[in-house]
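Sequence in, structure out. First:
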Amino acid sequence: MALTEAGHTISGPWWTTLRQTAEAEVVEVLFCWPTTQIPAEPVGISGTIVESGTLPARDELFVTLETSDDDSDLGDLGAEAAQIAMIEQANDDGLELVHGSIRQVGVLADDGTPEAIELVIAIQ
């Protein structure tokens, strides 16, 4: 809502990832919404740090996890099993993964309701 209220148009599904900080035992959780343009002015959301940027061009692997109405099928074991299977397949195919690059991307139906999650990992 903060982005649209500031005049920005959402141009795709949200995604999340974890980012390592300078402290080895601390990670940041990033929650991202792509917009048609990078905001020229910072967008303020109370209690958060808002950053703007662009992901670099890269090749990625992904697996889609379809959701049910209550999302019970996206428990930790389902997502973990899918991630392990994707990594094993990449290794079998001789692909080199970019460490720390996994993202969870929301897949939205035409009406904007969530219908799946994609686990995405960058490859070199």
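Second:
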Amino acid sequence: MKKITVVLSTYNGEKYLGEQLDSILRQKGAQVRYSLKVLCRDDGSKDRTRDILTHYSVKYPNVDIAKNSGKSLGVRKSFFSLLAEAQADYYFFSDQDDVWHLNKIQTFLDAFEETREDLPAGVYSDLDLVDGQNRPLGKSMMESNGWSYSEKRDFILFFFKTRVTGASFAINEAAKRQILKLSANDLAQVGMHDSILALLARAYNNLKFIPTSLVNYRQHGNNVLGAFAEGHSVFAVKVRIKRYRTFFNDLALVNSILSTKDLPNRNQAALQAAINFNGAIGFLNKLRMMFKDKKILWNEITPKQKLLLLLFY
């Protein structure tokens, strides 16, 4: 029987936390097809969140509270801390305010059967957007962002774009082991825990997308991260360049822990092309790198992205 651990990080989540925990604990197949455990960690809440976690941990033997719960680490460090403490075959990330569809874990496990267990693997799905009262907003996460189910989700897509939402994402033990090879300082600098883990799994062509929604993704005023990111003007270059720095940093960190013998040649070449560009100094050197590696990487990147990188990065 496979071991599943749901890692749940909380912060001032008293309003919706109970509904989320109930939806996890009621998952179909739990304790029959797979063993289910929930490992919770509070990141310094000032409301009743910790009391709610304590209540559930007393009531349910498979709900535990992390050893360093209560200390404020921030969302990235909090989730990596949970991963470091958890022991399972698969790890599911959970927000504090969503509602899981009851067949979520079973559907993810079916998808994991199509991945290689010996390499870092991940599975993700779409999410239904709902309001604070769990009422449908009429769109999924991907629809709201204009992302197509049929788009080409290769390794290069994940270089400068995000498609994976942590609220509906899971990884295997191999992915956990590999990401935790990074130092605590490196982990604190990643874009987000979900984006770098998706990049890691995709590097091995071992990231599986489920083309349906399996989570009600609640949108309300207290979201740490939501579906509707604040828009920026096309002239807000500083914001975009900051994001590119984060992307390149994540690529370099992933490159430092990859097992090259298991990496597809095309992915390895594309990753090296990105790292070469990031190390080039000056407009002409960057332009040379783009021409040199255009068939490997840059033909896949939009003209707008290339122009921004050449002129401002």
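Remark: The chain has a mean pLDDT of 94.
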